[in-house]
Amino acid sequence: MRVTRAAICGSDLHLYHGLMPDTRIGHTFGHEFVGVVDEVGPTVQNLQVGDRVMVPFNIFCGSCWYCARGLYSNCHNVNPNATAVGGIYGYSHTCGGYDGGQAEYVRVPLADVGPVTIPDWMDDDDAVLLTDALATGYFGAQLGDIAGGDVVVVFGAGPVGLYAALSSWLMGAGRVIVVDHLDYRLEKARTFAHAETLNFTEVGDVVLHLKRDTGFLGADVAIDAVGAEADGNFLQHVTTAKFKLQGGSPVALNWAIDSVRKGGTISVMGAYGPLFSAVKFGDAMNKGLTLRMNQCPVKRQWPRLFEHVRQGYIKPADIVTHRVPLEHIAEAYHMFSAKLDDCIKTLVLPSAA
Ligand SMILES: NC(=O)c1ccc[n+]([C@@H]2O[C@H](COP(=O)([O-])OP(=O)(O)OC[C@H]3O[C@@H](n4cnc5c(N)ncnc54)[C@H](O)[C@@H]3O)[C@@H](O)[C@H]2O)c1
Ligand SMILES: [Zn+2]
Ligand SMILES: [Zn+2]
C-alpha cells in the first residue's frame, strides 16, 4: 500500500518511551493508516491495484476460534506471542514484529481479511481515524454496557477518551464527565463531546469529588482511556517509568475502581504492558464490579460507525490538531509526547502521497 495518511496514537507513546518489550531498532511504527493499493500478492482476491483502502490496526486471520467469534484483536494465528497479545502493525516484536504505516509504503498481510475499500463519501482524514482511535473510543463505551440515563466517567481526554465520551451519548448515557489535567483537552471534551469536565489537579481528591458529584453513590460506568502512563500518583509513576517494576501505572484504573458505585462497570481501553500492575483488585472484587477490556477489534465496529459518520453524528476529523510531513515525524512525536502546542491528534502525510 502507498500510504496517503497515517496518524500517531497514544499507544505509540508507550513504544516511544520504551515501555513495550522487544521494540527493535529499525522497526517501523504506525498502526493507523490509509492509502492506495500499489501491488497485490498472488492470492489476494478482494483488492485491486488503485483501490483506496483503510486497514484496521489489528492483523488477523479471519478464521481461527477467536476470529470466528469476532475477537479479531485476539487472533491466534498472527503472532508467536499469541497467548499474550494479537498482531498489531508497527507495535514491536511482542505484537508480531509487523512493520507499520508511518511510512511511504506498508506491507499488508492477510489483505483479503482486514482492509476494506473506503466508501466514496468518506474523507481520508475521517477514514484514518476509524482505523483505531474512533473505533477504540466507541468500543470503550460499548464495553461499559451503558444503560439509559447512566452516569459515565471517562478518564483521559485524548483521542480515545474524547471519542468514548461522545459515543457514550449515542449509547444512552444521562451524564458524561471527562477527567484529565490538560485544560485544552478538557475544553475539547466540552465542545466536541458535550461532556462535563474535571481537572484532577484542581480538586484535592478526585475520587471524593466524583462521589460528591454523584450523590455519594458513584458513577455507573467508568472508562479508562489513559493506560500505562497515567499521571497523578508519584509512586506509581516512578515504579513504572523509572524502575519498570510494573507494566503500567494504573492510577486512572484505580480511580475508576474507587469512583464507580458498587456493582458498576469499568471498561479499560488504556493500554497496559504485559507485566504485573498494582491494581486495586480487592476493592473491585468487594464492590462487585464488572471489569471489561481488550484491544479493540476494529473491523467489528465499522458497519455501525460508518453509519454514524455518514449521518453526521460523529465527525472524526474534528479532533485533528496537526498535520506534518513524514520527514518531520520526530518533531511530531516530541510535540505529542510533551503535549505541546495544544496537540490532540496528529496526521502524518508521507511525501509519496
Ligand atoms: N485498547 C485499544 O485497542 C487501544 C487503542 C488505542 C489506544 N489505546 C490506549 O488508550 C490510551 C489513550 O490513547 P490516546 O491516543 O487518547 O492517548 P493520549 O496520550 O493522547 O491521551 C491520554 C490522556 O490521559 C491523560 N491523563 C494522564 N493521566 C491521567 C489520569 N490519572 N486521569 C485522567 N487522565 C489522565 C493525559 O493528560 C492525556 O490527555 C493509551 O493508553 C493508548 O495506548 C488502546
Ligand atoms: Zn493505537
Ligand atoms: Zn484469527
Please, could you describe this protein's structure?
- It is built from eleven helices and 14 strands.
- The protein is of the alpha/beta class.
- The chain folds into two domains: 184 residues, Quinone Oxidoreductase, Chain A, domain 1 (Alpha-Beta Complex); 156 residues, NAD(P)-binding Rossmann-like Domain (Rossmann fold, 3-Layer(aba) Sandwich).
- The strands form three sheets. A six-stranded mixed β-sheet has the order 6-3-2-1-14-13.
- Helix 3 crosses helix 10 and helix 6 runs parallel beside helix 8.
- It is globular, with a radius of gyration of 19 Å.
- The chain starts with a strand and ends with a strand.
- It binds nicotinamide-adenine-dinucleotide and zinc ion (2 copies).
- The site of one zinc ion has 5 residues, from loops.
Comma- or semicolon-separated keywords:
single chain, 353 residues, alpha/beta, Quinone Oxidoreductase, Chain A, domain 1, 2 domains, 6-stranded mixed beta sheet, 6-stranded parallel beta sheet, 28% helix, globular
